[in-house]
Amino acid sequence: MNAAVFDRTNRISAPLGGNSEQPELRSGCVALESHKAHQKHALLRRPELLVFICLLIVFNAPVVIGSCWQTLVFYPAAVRDGEWWRVFTHPFVHVTWYHFLLDGSAFIVLYQSLLEPRLVLRLAFVFFGAAASLLVSWACTGLDGGLCGLSGIAHGLMAVSGLELVSRHPPDSAKRRLGLITFVLVVTKAAVEAVTGRMCFSFLEFGLLGQPVAVAHAGGVIGSLLALAFLSNGFRFSWLPGPTLARDRG
Q: Which residue of 47, 106, 124, 136 has the smallest Cβ count within 10 Å?
């Protein structure tokens, strides 16, 4: 039976009998280092993600004490009075820590999952989604109660991510089916919320999301998909021949 020798710091220093566990230990360490290197490389390839994270931390610092940075929330009357910065800051502000946790984590994960290699197009998915979410919400509800949060943009990024999987994988692949299911679900959810004026999964709000604007999600989906349709010239479905499919299969 193998035993372990502990040094004075109570760490395992070496096995006494045999070394059959050492390959597994080394492979585990290699896997961990590889994962860390991959994460670091991903952040280096997408430095704008660090900017988004910093903005989220700064703009949502008040939620720690149960407050909200109201001067950054979008209010039509305030914007008409000259507080134009609210147009750009409102997506990154959240009313509670729970709101911040839900929207912030979803946005970061979905943005990181985008397959689009070009920075300009990735940012277009974000800003087009934000603009359409704001305009649709404003036109449909007047936004007298204000608007803030990343959920509209996150829904748009999810729709784009789903179509990216559909376009970059062959018809019989599991990833393509996953992309199609994701796209159908997020579009259906946004459409139902826009038509009914009620949020899906409202039982998960726990009174910590303020007064959600249901149509904002549909606006985000519309904006991000418009950016994908008009700006991404290389976007094509896998049944069409092209260099993108050839690279994926190679």
A: 47
Query: For 159-185, how does the pLDDT look when each residue is reduced to its tens digit (9 = 90+)?
Result: 999 999 999 888 889 999 999 999 999
> What does the DSSP 8-state code read for residue 96?
S
Q: Which of helix, strand or coil describes residue 12?
A: strand
Judge if pTM exceeds 0.85: no
Same domain, 98 and 191: yes
- Is 2 in the same domain as 106? no
For residue 185, the one-letter residue type is L
Alpha-carbon distance of 160 to 72, in angstroms, equals 27
- How many independent structural domains does the chain possess? 2
Residue 220 shares a structural domain with residue 97: yes
CA atoms within 13 A on the CB side of 36: 6
Instruction: Judge contact between 59 and 69, C-beta under 8 A.
Output: yes
The set of long-range contacts for 201-208, using a CB threshold of 8 Å and a minimum separation of 24, is 206/98, 208/95, 208/96, 208/97, 208/98, 208/99
Q: Give the amino acid at 238.
A: S
Same domain, 41 and 145: no
Tens digits of residue pLDDT in 45-88: 789 999 999 999 999 999 999 999 999 999 999 999 999 999 99
CA distance 183 to 206: 27
Count CA within 13 A, CB hemisphere, residue 239.
3
Cβ contact 235:243 at 8 Å:
no
